[in-house]
Design goal:
By secondary structure, the protein is mainly alpha-helical. The chain has one domain. Helix content is 61%, strand content 7%. The chain has three helices and two strands, in the order H-E-E-H-H. The chain has a two-stranded antiparallel ribbon. The longest helix is centred in the C-terminal third of the chain and has 14 residues. It is globular, with a radius of gyration of 10 Å.
């Protein structure tokens, strides 16, 4: 996983959304990369951040 700050990992989770207002992992990746062009991430990074949060409740 890319070395992201806690704030960036939280932002990824916020971008994913909740309930019926969610984005795909690729949409989150694209939005994050637009905001942080110097820190590009892949869809797998979004997947890992989301999985860790769902499994542990931590970012």
């Amino acid at each position: 996983m890319a070395h992201l700050t806690v704030t960036q990992r939280i932002e990824i989770l916020i971008l994913i959304g909740c309930g019926n207002m969610t984005r795909t992992q690729q949409e989150v990746c694209d939005l994050f990369n637009e905001k942080y062009p110097d820190r590009p991430i892949s869809q797998s990074t979004v997947s890992k951040v989301e999985s860790k949060f769902r499994e542990t409740g931590n970012v």
